[in-house]
Amino acid sequence: MAKDLSKALADLKEDEVVAIVQEKLNAGADPIGILAEAGKGMETVGTRFAKGEYFIPDLVYSGEILKKINELVKPKLTGGTAAKTGGKVIIATVAGDIHDIGKDIVVFMLDVSGFEVYDMGVDVPIQKIVDKIKETGATVVGLSGFLTLAYDAMKHTIDAIKAAGLREKTKIMIGGGQITPEIVKYTGADAYGKDAIEGVALAKKWLGVK
Amino acid sequence: MAKEWEQMTPAEKRADLDSKWLSPPGIKYVNAEAEKGYKGRVQRILDAVNMKQPDRVPVIPFVGFFGAFYAGYTPYDVMYDYDKLKYSFGKYVLDMKPDGHLSVTVSPPGKLHDIINYKLYAWPGHGVAKEHSYQCLEGEYMKANEYEALTSDPTNFFLTGWLPRVMGALDGLKMLTPFTNMTEMYGGFTGAAYVPFGLPPVKAAFKAMLDAGDEALKWIGAVGSFGAEMTAAGFPGFFGGGTKAPFDTIGDTLRGTKGIITDMYRQPAKVIRACEQFVPIMVKMGVDNAKLNGNPVVFIPLHKGADGFMSDEQFKKFYWPTLKDLMDGLIAEGCIPFPWAEGGYNSRLKVIKDTPKGKVIWGFDTTDMAEAKKILGDVSCIGGNLSIATLSVGTPEDVKNACKKLINDCAKGGGYLMLSGATIDNVPPANIKMMIDATKELGVYK
Known about the structure:
- The complex is a heterodimer of chains A (210) and B (446).
- Chain A has 210 residues and is of the alpha/beta class.
- Chain A is 54% helix and 10% strand.
- By secondary structure, chain B is of the alpha/beta class.
- Chain B is 53% helix and 8% strand.
- Chain B has 18 helices and ten strands.
- In chain B, helix 11 (246-266) runs antiparallel to helix 12 and helix 17 (396-410) packs parallel to helix 18 (429-442).
- Chains A and B meet through helix 4 and helix 8 of A and helix 11 and helix 16 of B.
């Protein structure tokens, strides 16, 4: 059997992944090392998604396999995991909107691309986002929304960031099924990503990551 | 004597539904102009569906709670007060004169959902603000290991498994035994099957259902009289029924997005079998309402087959075969399937071309309409993608330009409807008026 965990994960071979992880743990392998290999596999998943070889189901399924790996490894884990180096990004679905599928994919792609992601969840009140910027010092914010009500919620959130004096040092991207350049202008955002790949590209550009 | 429905050919069934739509029985029009307007509007839509060139492009804004906002109400107001619902949605139709209305069923009865303690959605005043529309709360309301229970007896699974989970007040239904146990008197089969009905939790569940039924009657009264009043004034309903693609039926509210996605990898055969089993159930759901309402158009909102939501291979394996079977089943019953492809369908256009000519309306959200016309234009009537973003934040001039572009790209030769790309809620009324007026001005066939 192949021992390459990252390859098995990248190829979405769930049973093989579980067998390899169990074998490694039984042999006394370092849990951090296993997670690092899994991380590499997830990076490949992200790359394949970016190239159009993988689609949303592949991302979601890889996330499910990763969850299984974490469950297996967790009992053996003593220390922390490796720190993220790509920079800080806040992601939230705006107030009034409870959709999370698109947001979760952006979070996933940012995470596998090495960013430290603050996922604030859905229906996030405006003030909480402003507070999070202050608390974390993040300079990139991604606002998600699926419904047309999100247009105004995004606009009001960006207005509040401005009113708090944080707009100058914060880059703001928006995204969602009904977002177009017109909505960027309307909300006062800096840009929109038509999909998660574009979201990652924007974060990389703004945070100077190559 | 007229033929019985069962004896009719698909073409005869379709002609029967078409004629009922064109001339609904028992309607007293407000005046001769209204009657002429009504028949003209239905004929305009039917010509487009039949791939003929109507007198002009039909225009039907895809309204959600727009009517409520237009009349100064919130979604909460109209979900809980059916007079406000009828008045506001009617005001929009009578003021702006679209070629078809979308009934008032987009606004479900709020109180009914309170009574049954509905868990599947958040709605105005109940999890979302009164000014906002309802939104689905995704979850695994059917577990990964319940495909066998679902496919072996879908009704029993809904009754004793799914309903208690999504409707809190119906928790007692868990205690019911299969109705198929009531085969006969001998041996107490029937007697034993009645035992659960004596238990307090089951009685409480039935009490909630009866109360919900009272509320449903009030609401459907408003729905029915709204439709009759709009017809009398000259405005047809655009569709007679609705149903769902089998994959979405399983994926949206049973297994949830994450659930069905993982099932595609872990237990693909079970997903496909469940989808196949739901084809006749979903056909019946659409046909029954189309016949009841005397209108052949059956709305099918499509969710999980959009570009990116699965690969083309997965679309062809999991999604399309049973969607096609559903549409074929509807066509065989004289209906006009109206699949409404939310998101983009650019990578699917060549696959979905595989339907009989002039039998289907394809509605699109963000799909490239010029491309859709190129690929589907000789097979199916198409419509959609008047951008909801433009309608929401653009000027009336922007809306007019967008209509102009769509008409240039898609209207040639007929087989085209002007539809918004997504549901219209709180949108500037001047933009909706422009969508309708611009189509009437620019969409005339000469």
